[in-house]
Amino acid sequence: MKRQIIQIDEEKCNGCGLCIPNCHEGALQLIDGKARLISDLMCDGLGACIGHCPEGAIEIIEREAQAYDEIAVIKEMVTKGENSYRTFSTFEGPPRVWLFKARSKMDARK
Ligand code: SF4
């Protein structure tokens, strides 16, 4: 499918890492000194990371990419420790997972 997704300009990226904690889905990692999108599945295309890059290295483009997969994001986040998520039960349905970073993004929209 064609959709919006981030693109990192390797020439502009200085490897400062400021974008990493500001990707609420954990889709960015520093690899060989450069920020990399580790999986199309984990980028929701909203671009919360863009404003945190001092080099202007990140932009949103439209290209063929796998659809954003919230389950893949949750699977990655649970590997980062219990401070990254909490589960809670509702009266109906299975336990839900709450990503703390995701809540920060929602708060920022207010
Ligand atoms: S914030 Fe920008 S310059 Fe820093 S690692 Fe991320 S993409 Fe590279």
3D structure, described in words:
The protein is an alpha+beta fold and 110 residues long. Strand 5 and strand 6 (96-99) form a beta hairpin. It has a single domain (2-80), classed as Alpha-Beta Plaits. The chain has helices at residues 70-77, 100-108; strands spanning 2-8, 28-31, 34-37, 58-64, 85-88, 96-99. Residues 102-110 have low confidence and may be disordered. Helix content is 15%, strand content 27%. The structure holds iron/sulfur cluster.
Based on the model shown, name its key terms.
two-stranded antiparallel ribbon, disordered C terminus, 110 residues, 2 helices, 15% helix, globular, alpha+beta, single chain, Alpha-Beta Plaits, binds iron/sulfur cluster
In short:
By secondary structure, this protein is of the alpha+beta class. The protein is built from 2 helices and 6 strands; from the N terminus they run ββββαββα.
> What are the bound molecules?
iron/sulfur cluster
Strand order of the largest sheet: 1-4
The count of domains is 1
CATH fold name:
Alpha-Beta Plaits
Shape: globular
Distance between the termini: 31 Å
**Hey, roughly how much beta strand do the residues contain?**
25-35%
What is Rg? Answer: 15 Å
The average pLDDT is: 82
Please count the helical segments.
2
Helical content stands at 10-25%
Structural class: alpha+beta
CATH architecture level-2 label: 2-Layer Sandwich
Uncertain runs are 102-110
The total beta strand count reads 6
Sheet with most strands: 2 strands, antiparallel
Write the H/E string, N to C: EEEEHEEH
